[in-house]
Amino acid sequence: MKNKMLSQSVADSILSMITIEKRFAAGDKLPNEIELSEELNVSRTTLREAVRILVAYQILEIRRGKGTYVTKKAFEQPQDLEQLSAVRVNAGDLYEMRLIFEPEAAYLAAVRGTDAEIKRILDYGKQIEEEIRTGRDRTGDEHSFHKAIAQATHNEFMNKLMPVLYQAISKGVALSVQSEKAVNDTICDHRMIMEFLEQRNAEGAKNAMKIHIMHAIKELNIES
Fold first, then answer.
1. Over 70: is that where the pLDDT of 223 sits?
2. Which of 3, 103, 105, 190 could bond to 210 as cystine, CB 3.0-4.6 Å?
């Protein structure tokens, strides 16, 4: 049962790379099995199971001797999810949504996340800090950091909310360019979240995430 849940979670991650992070277009070849399994912090066996799930849904296509490719079907989202992603709401509403469910997600991630999932969260956090220090765009890794936390809850519906969360994060990153304090808060807050997750301190992770979002609301002058 746990293996099935993990392979489904990995399938969701790959789908997110394609449809949300826009890393791959229709017809693109996925990285080889070794590279992708290392990036996702899972075994090659689990990765193969995840790929089989996506092949069954015609999202991926295996071409013998050539590799695994993304199909056009990957971009044909269910209508209800598509509408949810396209809803135009202001930053205040988006951050209010974050405040409602992300602290609980951090709590559940600390309790339920596998060691590999926690490591993945920490790796993304370190990448974000490096991108901030070198002045590079961190939007993609911010998406991945919070997506990894949501996946570590092992709650299917938490992942369904990710398109809304991505909108909030993208707006927040864009607004933070004008606020050095907001950027510095991000580094400190992420470190705090990561430390509590690594310690498996659920209450600490929950409160750290709440503080992180409230800092953003204050420093970015976001009104709900």
1. no
2. 103
Q: Is residue 86 predicted with pLDDT exceeding 70?
A: no
Asked if residues 205 and 197 have their Cβ atoms less than 8 Å apart, the reply is yes
**Long-range contacts, stretch 136-145, CB < 8 angstroms, 24+ apart:** 137/173, 138/173, 139/169, 139/170, 139/173, 140/21, 142/169, 142/172, 142/173, 143/20, 143/21, 143/169, 143/170, 144/21, 145/121, 145/190
Q: Are 105 and 153 in contact (CB under 8 A)?
A: yes
Inter-CA distances, 80 with 28, 43, 92, Å: 26, 33, 23
What lies within 8 Å, CB to CB, of 42 at 6+ separation is 6, 10, 50, 116
Global pTM value: 0.63
Integer Cα distance of 50 and 136 in angstroms: 31
**Cβ proximity of 172 and 216 under 8 Å:** yes
Question: pLDDT tens, 162-214?
Answer: 777 877 887 777 777 667 788 888 999 999 999 999 999 999 999 999 999 99
| Range from 6-10, 86-90, 197-201 carrying the lowest mean pLDDT | 86-90
